[in-house]
Amino acid sequence: MSLELSGGEESGSMRPPMEPTLWQKSRPGARGVFPPGISPEALDGRCPEQIRRKSPLALPELSELDVVRHFTRLSHLNRGVDTHFYPLGSCTMKYNPKIMDRISEITGFRDLHPRTGPEGMQGLLEVLHTLEESLGHLLGMEAVTLAPAAGAHGELTGILIARRYFESKGDRGRTEILIPDSAHGTNPASAAMGGFTVRVLPSGSDGGVDLGHLAETLSEKTALVMMTVPSTLGIFEKDLLKMVAMVKDSGALLYMDGANFNAFIGLLRPGDLGFDIVHINTHKTLATPHGGGGPGSGPVGVKAHLAPFLPSPRIRKEGERYSLVSPETSIGPIRSFIGSTLVLLRALGYLRMLGGEGVRRVALYALLNANYLRARLSGTLPRTGSGLCAHEFVLSAKELGAEGLHASDLAKEILDAGYYAPTISFPLIVPEALMIEPTETESKETLDRFAEDFRRIVDLARSNPSRIKEAPRRTPVARPDEVAAARDPVLTDPASLHLS
Amino acid sequence: MADFIPHTETETREMLSLLGLDTLEDLLSVYSHSMAAFSPPDLSSLGGGQDERTLMEWFSSRGDRNLPASRVVVFRGAGAYDHFIPAGVSALVGRGEFLTSYTPYQPEASQGLLQAIFEFQTAIARLYGMDLANASLYDGATAMAEAVLVAVRETERSVVLLSEGIDPECRSVVETYLEGMSVRVEIVPLEGGTTPYSRLAGRVGPDVACFVGSTPTFLGAVDQFDGVSDLLHGVGALFIIHANPHSLALLKSPGEWGADLASGEGQPLGLPLSSGGPYLGLLSSRKKFVRRIPGRLAGLTKDREGRPCFVLTLQAREQHIRREKANSNICSNETLLALQALVYLSLLGPGGLRRAASGSWSNAHDLCARLQTIPGISLINPEADFFHEFVSELPVDADDLSRHLLAEGILGGLPLGGLLGPSWSRRMLWCATELRTEAEIARTVEIVRLYLEK
């Protein structure tokens, strides 16, 4: 496949031009930033021949301004919460407060070497310990680790903790993890990485876990039951407490996937509900920016009986002094160093700025916005669940199949209307799902405008489906050929192969 | 205080009214069946909220209790390196269009990041001498663990050989990741600081999934792998090299050593020390493993109108499609840090990266030579080449010297006793990057000399 990224400014196109790649822009001999150091020639051959690199570095050669324009142009071809309403269900794309950018740039944290030793890290350890305690209070858990780098990493951590817990009791027969079919794909993937067999719990007609099936599947082989609360359908299961009791009776542990914690932060605590282990995603509930795919952070809270197994190192506080310890009982480290601390600073900053009452308002307004938007969209497409929803809701575009349309087609028209798209094709149990999560930080005006546009788009889908098939028209590119991309993958720039 | 909720009271009332509710609290009926069972959580420990100024003061005062690179001269590496970072890096990476976006699920609205990921994959693949790289993993340690898992799945074998030269904490992370698998980890000892071919040849066999080497090693030596690729391939095992990307500006790449997969910690490519994270896991491989490797991949394709464009591709490897059969559970990764590394590499270019790496080499060798003029200090493994780290044998306890240096405003070499055991208590792992000046090196050596003369 050739990579002739032209300016793309063909006449009559509504599309903004694309940007050539760094290697297409590379000019042999061009120099960018001049770093401290010495010229390689000045090493005088002190770097022996047999260990020296012979192949080209093949990095692009550009001026500083070339680079600044390139990445500024790329940013214009990308949508974030700062530029667009981002109703991406399950991802909680709320506003990321700018003050937290400033906090993460405080030199005392940003430029701190992770192996400085506790005597030079007291401020950092105090901040992290404070966050552990705050999260413990919010989650109703006795101990918290901040180590996991993302939600899925938190899941793996929790699963390894469960494994170690049963081993410590001499119970090696618990080899299964039960997971609802509506769960995020990370749940079964994490279970498999932890060495467990996955048993799927099918949803009942209301989208909740079927109690009868849960009873049949639970056994002395069950180590863990993983639940998402509220479920990925945006439903807070009415039988949750019954399920919890059933799992406890079986001797298994209960894991809560806290991806949806924004729905009830400050209102209910996973620990009170009966969960033994919970992870949350700071890049969802605690407003840390997702950075186009990460960094995230996935703190895990556990009840006291699981605390000895938390990953090392642990922060210990004695009097006013903090230190790092690695208990023998720990599952061991799950990453380098102590955690994604610059992300964690933002999370703590957010909690401190809001305070207890502010946190509670977050959940209430997340509920208000989701229910308001759901009501405003009433009559457009069928929705799952009756009564009030939690912080998000799911619509099904299945009936538009008669017009030859899929949920993904609607998503493209939504992009043209000036929004990011909802999550599509998830949860898997709803055909042609559109999962919408407005978050509490969007205004009524934005929700009203989105509702009007959505209604217009669904009307258009019914009256002129071929028009929807042409969307999007205003984005930098039209629909990519994903099949061709996967058939013969081109994952690096061919232009880079010619550079020295 | 601020809660970033934009609603006016009137708007809130109008919205509730559409739902047939009187107050916000009426929304709690969603949880009524569970809330009745518990008393409402006590949120008083979170305080009453803070404004921006108070918040900044609180964090700044905690930051003041740390000893960052702006207050101490850093001669410590051991997995995290104090390199020069151009001002352009944070200016570009901090743009809201990147910072506040999600994983590029909708390619038409995410071309900027998709192209940047594609360019990052290109830069990392070229740097490591590999055919392809993914969009990032959490950090160097988890990247090594994921590379090992690729080898275990590919070979369906149960023994993993790790070089003794691997950072002991990285090794522990690999062991944690393998906890649930029926896989045994064996350590291949170093001799004179590098991997002895004969030792490895004596161990490989049809039970071995892979050997993982590290260069430079944790103790700084540039390891050499002549013949290792053929040796491993001869028994059907894979060869993985964990390499510091900064060193690759000068040193032989994993591709040149014949590795199948390469992992690395991307922090030296324009990421601040960051108190340990977020960092950047690098994973690259030969083309034949393209459907085995974990994580996001951006690929080139064409849009309907024939325009070249980028998409996330080969998603059938991933958890959201394959669930328990996925290559990995990874979802969120370190994309923004990948962008950061890419901006760094673009700003420096090949000449700048070689210049910085040469400066690191030169400064570390200068420091090493000067330290050895002090009676009682010697270099361990003197026959091994090193890049920007080396280990000194001291006539005193390394922790004591480290504390003395810190009091003088110097974050000296890492005392190794805590990590490697009491027999290492008089050894110190030093690092000097291109940022260190001749004056800083001279002063540090002088302070060590005076301390030992006491």
**Total count of helical runs of at least 4 residues of chain B:** 15
Helix content of chain A: 25-40%
Distance between the termini of chain A: 22 Å
Runs of chain B in which pLDDT lies below 50 for 5 or more consecutive residues are none
CATH fold type of the largest domain in chain A: Aspartate Aminotransferase, domain 2
Largest sheet of chain B, order of strands side by side? 2-8-7-6-5-3-4
Shape category of chain A = globular
Largest sheet of chain A: 7 strands, mixed
Give the spatial strand order of the biggest sheet of chain A. Answer: 1-7-6-5-4-2-3
Number of helices of chain A: 15
Q: Mind explaining what this structure looks like?
A:
The complex is a heterodimer of chains A (500) and B (454). With 500 residues, chain A is an alpha/beta fold. Chain A has 15 helices and twelve strands. Chain A has helices spanning 22-25, 64-76, 98-104, 107-110, 122-139, 151-168, 186-193, 211-217, 240-250, 270-273, 341-376, 407-416, 444-463, 465-470, 482-487, and strands at 143-145, 176-180, 197-201, 222-228, 253-258, 277-280, 300-302, 314-318, 321-325, 393-396, 423-424, 433-436. In chain A, helix 3 (98-104) runs antiparallel to helix 11 (341-376). Chain B has 454 residues and is an alpha/beta fold. Chain B folds into two domains: 73-83 and 349-453, Aspartate Aminotransferase, domain 1, CATH 3.90.1150; 87-343, 3-Layer(aba) Sandwich (Aspartate Aminotransferase, domain 2). Chain B has 15 helices and 15 strands. Chain B has helices spanning 9-18, 32-35, 52-63, 87-93, 96-99, 111-128, 140-155, 168-177, 197-203, 228-234, 319-322, 335-371, 398-407, 417-420, 438-453, and strands at 73-74, 132-133, 159-163, 184-188, 208-215, 238-243, 261-265, 281-285, 298-302, 308-312, 378-379, 389-393, 410-411, 414-415, 427-431. A seven-stranded mixed sheet of chain B has the order 2-8-7-6-5-3-4, with helices on both faces. In chain B, strands 11-12-15-14 form a four-stranded antiparallel sheet. In chain B, strands 1-13 form a two-stranded parallel ribbon. Chain B is globular. Chains A and B meet through helix 2, helix 3, helix 4, helix 5 and helix 6 of A and helix 1, helix 2, helix 3, helix 4 and helix 5 of B.
